[in-house]
Structure to design on (626 residues):
């Protein structure tokens, strides 16, 4: 029987007439805060708890925090929102039948055990309880006079230990703790609470539940705590845990407000509401949305030492966005993205292209500037712009060779800059593909800078959401710094994202172009690297970066930075993703051998999947959207 009279939205009425409300608490992700800011959150939380009245029940369920309060509660941090269907939230389902046995119960097909906290850990870390399994924390403030009486009794109980011939350190410590707590309660700096914690352990089978119970009891014993598996009165205790039912505090202990604040799982691993799934250090799922509406721009800067996972992460981001229907351009230096592109039917850019395909004056000016050796004075740049503008008005000029003839009339000798690369030009108009891949290694040095300018214009002409991955080519564009800066600033209004990859943030910031790109990338993915604190990296972010560590073959870890995010996150590639993104020589040699011996007669995508299956027998293609 459900011990409730009525449930209306998030309002509950018990059989005895007590009215309470049910809320979800959207906690803070405190991992990105410095120590003093983290401590201040718990100080504020303790103050909020001291100001509560009546019974409070906190539910930590599936890494989400819920509040059932029988009086008003105001929290200084986090966002408290009404939560409907409180019973279904607690049960994990709406209408499952509950059956009780000796020391466990079943709810639908799930086996559940209730385990109470008998003795509490002597010390708690700030985020420790956020790693605990599901539990219910109930507490109620003890009135000040009663609290002082209880503390004073404990103080007197341990007072004699101060005068023993052989010192009793535990008793002495208990005395001094009671002495300090008595003073703090007297001055309203702290309060004393009745509190109890019940863990809710779940298993798909009774055997699984038993193993989980044994492990948890063992783990807490190592923390100096003791757990009790509930048997007698199990039905009664379980009903006490249901939202809307006031707690009887059968397993209550007295704890001070500062300890109670650390029992609240107020830290939550969080980046964004949805998007690409990543992992926190505590193995919780977090999500990253490149095109989040709150982002000032959609650009990303990825930096880190070689072998730390930069290209792996960029490959994962590319694969995710392609699956969302986002269009893509990849400028690859070193074939890091070649397998990914081939697997996702990317079109390899023709070695010949038509610079005049896009009749945009500013773009063509930058294209020409990228080819010529010297940097023109501002006045000459202006004249070049005017000349190109006039040439484009002549609709009979349809080939780049004709364009150069006209340009030569105004800038004598400029045609010679193009002699070395003219074989890479064509008069054909290339189709705008949804996914274009360019192998930068196929072009001579003189062609690379103007090619990038062309590709940017190509990219800007794609319709809808799009992402452009640039792999370590920034030294080639120093003469076009202003233009690149403008592109990075204006990409957002074109639903475009630029993903810039480089080795080291400090080296990158030494050039004007590098600084401009840093300033115009809202998101930074910083992999392991040696950096100094700077205007782009404060001391706390540097300390977080110094703790970053990737584990080859298992995960890549990086520091995700934005104006509102400062979070170490991990990317665990699936077996298929690892095969697609890895640049490890041995891995790629094995795959090339497989292609040569067995995979040459089947489509590339099928060959990659088959090879992944051979290397990982337990993996199945349907485990992911391959």
């Amino acid at each position: 029987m459900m011990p409730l009279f009525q449930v209306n939205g998030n309002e509950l009425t018990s059989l005895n007439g007590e009215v309470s409300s049910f809320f979800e608490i959207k906690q803070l992700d405190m991992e990105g805060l410095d120590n003093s800011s983290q401590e201040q959150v718990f100080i504020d939380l303790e103050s909020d708890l001291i100001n509560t009245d009546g019974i409070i029940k906190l539910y930590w369920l599936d890494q989400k925090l819920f509040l059932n309060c029988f009086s008003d509660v105001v929290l200084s941090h986090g966002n408290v929102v009404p939560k409907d269907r409180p019973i279904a939230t607690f049960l994990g389902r709406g209408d499952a039948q509950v059956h009780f046995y000796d020391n466990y119960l079943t709810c639908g097909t799930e086996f559940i055990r209730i385990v109470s906290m008998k003795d509490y850990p002597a010390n708690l870390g700030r985020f420790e309880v956020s790693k605990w399994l599901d539990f219910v924390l109930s507490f109620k403030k003890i009135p000040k006079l009663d609290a002082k009486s209880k503390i004073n009794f404990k103080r007197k109980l341990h007072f004699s230990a101060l005068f023993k011939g052989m010192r009793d350190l535990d008793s002495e410590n208990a005395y001094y703790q009671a002495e300090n707590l008595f003073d703090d309660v007297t001055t309203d700096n702290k309060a004393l609470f009745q509190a109890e914690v019940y863990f809710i352990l779940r298993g798909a089978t009774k055997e699984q539940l038993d193993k989980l119970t044994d492990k948890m009891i063992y783990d807490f014993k190592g923390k100096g705590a003791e757990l009790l598996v509930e048997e007698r009165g199990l039905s009664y205790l379980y009903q006490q845990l249901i939202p809307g039912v006031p707690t009887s505090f059968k397993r209550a202990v007295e704890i001070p407000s500062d300890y109670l604040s650390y029992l609240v799982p107020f830290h939550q691993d969080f980046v964004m509401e949805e998007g690409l799934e990543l992992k926190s250090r505590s193995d919780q799922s977090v999500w990253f949305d490149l095109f989040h509406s709150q982002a000032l721009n959609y650009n990303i800067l990825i930096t880190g030492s070689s072998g730390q996972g930069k290209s792996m992460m960029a490959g994962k981001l590319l694969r995710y966005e392609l699956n969302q229907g986002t269009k893509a351009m990849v400028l690859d230096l070193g074939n890091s993205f070649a397998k990914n592109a081939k697997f996702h039917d990317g079109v390899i850019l023709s070695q010949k292209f038509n610079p005049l395909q896009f009749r945009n004056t500013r773009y063509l000016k930058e294209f020409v500037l990228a080819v010529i050796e010297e940097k023109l004075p501002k006045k000459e740049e202006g004249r070049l712009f005017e000349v190109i503008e006039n040439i484009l008005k002549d609709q009979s000029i349809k080939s780049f060779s004709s364009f150069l003839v006209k340009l030569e009339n105004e800038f004598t000798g400029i045609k010679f800059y193009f002699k070395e690369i003219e074989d890479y030009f064509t008069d054909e108009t290339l189709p705008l593909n949804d996914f274009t891949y360019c192998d930068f290694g196929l072009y001579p040095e003189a062609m690379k800078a103007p090619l990038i300018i062309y590709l940017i214009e190509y990219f800007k002409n794609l319709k809808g959401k799009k992402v452009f991955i640039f792999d370590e080519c920034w030294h080639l564009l120093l003469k076009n710094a202003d233009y690149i800066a403008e592109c990075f600033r204006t990409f957002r209004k074109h639903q475009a994202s630029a993903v810039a990859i480089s080795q080291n943030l400090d080296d990158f910031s030494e050039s004007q172009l590098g600084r401009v790109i840093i300033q115009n990338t809202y998101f930074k993915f910083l992999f392991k690297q040696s950096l100094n604190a700077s205007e782009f990296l404060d001391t706390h972010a540097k300390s977080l970066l110094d703790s970053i560590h990737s584990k080859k073959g298992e995960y890549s870890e990086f520091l995700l930075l934005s104006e509102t995010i400062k979070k170490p996150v991990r990317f665990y590639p699936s077996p298929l993703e690892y095969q697609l993104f890895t640049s490890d020589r041995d891995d790629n040699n094995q795959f090339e051998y497989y292609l040569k011996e067995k995979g040459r007669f089947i489509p590339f995508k099928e060959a990659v999947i088959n090879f992944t299956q051979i290397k990982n027998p337990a993996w199945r293609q349907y485990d992911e959207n391959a």
